[in-house]
Write the structure tokens for this entry.
Amino acid sequence: MAETAQAIEVRDLFKRFGPLEVLKGVSLSAKQGDVIALIGGSGSGKSTFLRCINLLELPTAGQVSIHGETIEMKKDGRGGLMPANRRQVQRIRTKLGMVFQSFNLWQHMTVLQNVIEVPVHVLGQSRDEAIATAETLLRRVGLYEKRDAYPAFLSGGQQQRAAIARALAIQPLVMLFDEPTSALDPELVGEVLTVIGDLAREKRTMIIVTHEMAFARQVANHVVFLHGGHIEEQGSPEAIFENPQSERLKKFISSIH
Amino acid sequence: MSDTPNAGTYVAPKARSLFEPHRLFLMAVAAALLFCIAWFMRWDWLPRYQERLIYGIGQTLLMLFSTAIIGFLFAVPLGLVQVTGPKPLAWAARGFCTLIRGTPLLLQLWLLYYGLGSLFAQYPEIRSSFLWPYLRQAWPYGFAALMISFAAYEGEVMRGAFAGVPRGELEAARAYGMGRFTLFRRIWLPRAIHRALPTLTGETVLQLKSTPLVATVTVVDVYAIISRVRQETFLTYEPLLLLALIYLCLTGMLVYAFKLLENRIPTRGV
């Protein structure tokens, strides 16, 4: 079953913040190994969509499945949805490695402690095992020497690479990136994109919300353009960037370049 | 804000010499003062009261630590429910903090000791209960008043500390599947305490200096011992100077201990 199931399947997602409807029925599916880039102007709903996948935002309506397992939702009595089974949500979340725009490292822990926190205290790994994995990951993102430093003493790029190591440490089925370079100084963007690019090359399933169009084009095998809470257009990077069909996408692409 | 590559290493400024002119002068003043205190004042009573003074200091510290620790345990939920709700609990906690912080500690202490204490004595059920041997003493009332006061003040501090932990850090914990209790124990509470530590240092020092109030309800702490010395020796300044010195030393040690605790997690800038 896991063979045939999509890594992620989102069906008809709606999200409303009070009177504001941010997502108006968005569906998306990702196969194992897909790298999907979500692009769009600000307010297009791309971050909200990503945050609905691991229920950091509760969708107003719609369905999310991870590897064929549908997250059970029930009505919250105020016109929205809430998780029907908290344990299931927590279990599914441990399979989704989220990377945030503002890193969100735990400031009272060292880099290494940040990386082993979830493996030890949520997944129940032994400390030694978690440390061994964490050190391998920190070497990969080039932060082994900084493993005992506190996040406040790292540059933005280093913090984001540590955050990526923290997300990888839970051995996620899917990585979710929420504008991972938007809070970085321009000269620090490259080091983070290199790390994400490496992950894409080893065929990790990833969904990336990004403003870096050149990067999206380079690493993604599928690009989704969101506008006003709808998927306006989607397709291969070549199709989207070289042969945009809709007026809005044409305008968006020309405004970026 | 961009950082230099070596932001992690902090180089302390070079210590200045001990023998600069202004420092020598200050040292001379201090030495003269000490000499005057030792030579012109009467300290012959000191050996006689030594044991009792040490006992009194022990009682003061016991009062301080027991009320601060248990008060803090109450402060955590008091602060937490004001941030998380449910609303009725939040109102109750806010009401409690406002009531206690809005009235003098001495008044609370006397209400407990003279009010509640004499009320208890009127009920035979209480007088015959196993608690009576404690309730007829003064220290439970002193302890309760100091503990409640500490809980109320620190409840307010913890409310701010809980609310001040960046939402993103809590969100990250939830995003990786952390349950509510683990999140509180591993992320929210330690992060809040870390933020609140500098304030807690000051509050604990204030608590130390509130402890002599219990002497007004006959609890024997270091202040009560010094009062005894004054009554028996008819001296005024010497015992009071010694008392000031004792509180000063205790404060110094407290501040130093908190500093060590704070330095366990280095913070950058402010």
Q: What stands out?
A: The CA atoms of residues 129 and 135 of chain B lie 10 Å apart. Chain B has one domain: 50-263. Chain B touches chain A at residues 2-3, 5, 7-8, 166, 168-169, 171-179, 182, 186-187, 190-191, 194, 265-269 (CB under 8 Å). Confidence is low (pLDDT under 50) at residues 1-5 of chain B.
